[in-house]
Amino acid sequence: MRVVRAATRRTPFRPYPAYRGELPARVRVTHTTTLGTFSRFPASRESGPFGVSSAKEHLFVWSVGGGEGNSIGTLHAANHLTGTLARSQTKEGFMPIAINDVRISSASSGDISRRSLFRGLTGVGLAAGLGGALRFAPAAAQESTPMASLPPAHRVQVGQIEVLVLEDAVFPAPPALFALNAPAAELNAELAEQGLAPDATIDVSVHPLLVETDEQRVLLDTGIGAGGNLLNALAAEGITPGDIDVVLITHLHLDHIGGAVDANGAPVFPNARYLINGTERAFWAAGPELSELAVPAEQNDQSRQGALDVLAALEGVLEEIAPGDEIAPGVTAIDAKGHTPGHVAVEINSDGESMLHLVDAVHVPFLQLDHPDWFMLADNWPAWAVTNRKLLLDRAADENLLVATYHFPFPGIGRVSKDEVGWTWTDEG
């Protein structure tokens, strides 16, 4: 472990990430999700080192588990691997993933509209959910709960470190947003068990954490920005933006970076060191197409541009870190890739006590704790999102760690214990 004081390195983004080693034995889920065919690729194509064949139709597929027979493959950054890969064609150092040679019928035009697919996923419309829960749409702040009704900061002690949970916003969202690969009948059954109708929405909270050590105030993410409550919540605690020493951007989704810079493009926290995983910075700085997401192009454009705008505004201020770096005494970034390629969780340790902040490894307790293999619409690498969620939650259960979250109902502090399938959440807020 190393303490980060200054970062000068700039990490290039590798489109084929070098995953090391096999998946843990306990990760044995196998599924294939098809989201559509897209005609922008030629009928047959060699993809990097993989030698993709029989790729007449290119599907978005994700699969986790052991290979069947001689058919294995590898996910790459965009997750649109198709066809069948021979075992001998995989590249050493890449994580093996089972690939099924799946075909679906094309629409009459030979293509399936991303917009019609996006809208058809749920009767209440996932576009509205994305605009609210993830702030991919500018109107998100207008849909949030009024600031006057938001709760005050919630304080948690971890040894000598104090953690404040700061409620920034609450948005309504359709549950299907967080269970993209869930069979409709199973999702509806889970909703019914929660007393929810199939077309119900759920409230999704947004609450950054402020970590106060003896030496520094560390803000973990900055909320939605305009329309959010973060600065008010800090002010209520007697804290000004100039009092923040470190801002960690766990990933570059707009509900985490919206409050990083002001309307003039200046850093909101003028005295803070801004930190980000170098892999995350490189991914978004490259202007990713985001075609792996079943989201309309204009929504992806807003997400991409928002990330690029923040990166540009913080140029010269933003420092790169890597998983395992201690960003402040007792505060360490943890690898949690999947939701985005450089997404990090955070571990807090002091005087023998520990807290694990899961950030966006989880979003909705009754969906992703009860159904560990369900992933959400905005997961860039669903296989890794599922895998790292399991690893983090298993560790939290095995070590009885205090757990913090970003999107669970406020304050989102508790502990998890293992069930036969998934985990049970015990709220300690």
Order of helices and strands: EHHHEEEHEEEHEHEHHEEEEEHHEEE
Rg (CA only): 21 Å
Q: Total domains, how many?
A: 1
The H-level CATH homologous superfamily, spelled out, is Ribonuclease Z/Hydroxyacylglutathione hydrolase-like
Q: Bin the helical content.
A: 10-25%
What global shape is seen? globular
Whole-Å distance between the termini?
Answer: 31 Å
Mind telling me which CATH architecture this is? 4-Layer Sandwich
Oligomer: single chain
Mean pLDDT: 73
Percent strand? 15-25%
Low-confidence stretches: 1-142
CATH topology: Metallo-beta-lactamase, Chain A
CATH class division? Alpha Beta
Short key terms for the protein model shown above:
429 residues; alpha/beta; Metallo-beta-lactamase, Chain A; eight-stranded mixed sheet; seven-stranded mixed sheet; 10 helices; 17 strands; 20% helix; disordered N terminus
What's the topology here?
Layout: E1 2-3, H1 114-120, H2 126-133, H3 140-143, E2 154-158, E3 161-165, E4 169-173, H4 184-193, E5 202-206, E6 209-212, E7 217-220, H5 230-236, E8 246-249, H6 254-257, E9 273-277, H7 278-285, H8 297-313, E10 318-321, E11 325-328, E12 331-335, E13 344-350, E14 353-357, H9 365-368, H10 382-398, E15 402-404, E16 413-418, E17 423-427
Parallel strand pairs: 1-11, 7-8, 8-9, 9-10, 14-15
Antiparallel strand pairs: 2-3, 3-6, 4-5, 6-7, 11-12, 12-13, 13-14, 15-16, 16-17
